[in-house]
Specification:
The complex is a heterodimer.
Chain A lengths: L2 E5 L2 E3 L5 E8 L7 E7 L5 E7 L5 E3 L7 E6 L4 E6 L8 E9 L4 E5 L3 E5 L2
Parallel strand pairs in A: 2-11
Antiparallel strand pairs in A: 1-3, 3-8, 4-5, 4-9, 5-6, 7-8, 9-10, 9-11
Chain B lengths: L8 E4 L5 E6 L11 E6 L6 E4 L13 E6 L2 E6 L8 E8 L4 E3 L3 E5 L1
Parallel strand pairs in B: 1-9
Antiparallel strand pairs in B: 2-6, 3-4, 3-7, 5-6, 7-8, 7-9
The chains are: A mainly beta, B mainly beta.
Chain lengths: 118, 109
């Protein structure tokens, strides 16, 4: 079955770090563009980051310099390393597969909740 | 990377048609035919409904259609059904990034 399963969310203090994982099955992460999209409680969707199949990475201005997207090819897993976390980073984080060139998200995980609070 | 502009809410009765607008700029919606639309029910992940402005993925009802004119894209749902009640988000390519709209809550009266 083609699916994405996120994990790693939880409660973290402001200034802390967290690493999210997104395990893929049914397709190869490294052959696809993959993204993270987040949704603050009661708010809309916000694009966070993308990694191209070739390895290039891009970030939203709101997380640039603090978040790092990466992947582990043999584990077929996508990651999001989040440092210097702020209260405004509190959200459900979704990983999604991006259809390259056409640039749409055709497959989404169920999301993992990150709460930044003291 | 400012969010695309959508109406906060729209409503319609069963069987009617509604249209949700999505206004961007010449740097996103206006420059690329790469607008997609997502449906999200409470507590669920978003679901792709329209891609490349007007294309429907397999399995999505033909009651859903999309269009674009200049910097504004639109999603039209015809023959409204109760299960269409959800939040809808537009999204546009913006040059190695994506930008979403603020979302529109559709209420089926």
């Amino acid at each position: 079955e083609v699916q994405l399963v996120e994990s790693g969310g939880g409660l973290v203090q402001p200034g802390g770090s967290l690493r999210l994982s997104c395990a893929a099955s049914g397709f190869t992460v490294s052959s696809n563009y993959m993204s993270w999209v987040r949704q603050a409680p009661g708010k809309g969707l916000e694009w966070v980051s993308v990694i191209y199949s070739g390895g290039s990475t891009y970030y939203a201005d709101s997380v640039k310099g603090r978040f790092t997207i990466s992947r582990h090819n043999s584990k077929n897993t996508l990651y999001l390393q989040m440092n210097s976390l702020r209260a405004e980073d509190t959200a459900v984080y979704y990983c999604a597969r991006v259809i390259a060139n056409d640039w749409y998200f055709d497959l989404w995980g169920r999301g993992t909740l990150v709460t930044v609070s003291s | 990377q400012s969010a695309l502009t959508q109406p906060a809410s729209v409503s319609g009765s069963p069987g009617q048609s509604i249209t949700i607008s999505c206004t961007g700029t010449s740097s996103d919606v206006g420059s690329y035919n790469l607008v997609s639309w997502y449906q999200q029910h409470p507590g669920k992940a978003p679901k792709l409904m329209i891609y490349e402005v007007s294309k429907r993925p397999s399995g999505v009802s033909n009651r859903f259609s999309g269009s674009k004119s200049g910097n504004t894209a639109s999603l039209t749902i015809s023959g409204l059904q109760a299960e269409d009640e959800a939040d809808y988000y537009c999204c546009s390519y913006a040059g190695s990034s994506s930008v979403f709209g603020g979302g529109t809550k559709l209420t089926v009266l």
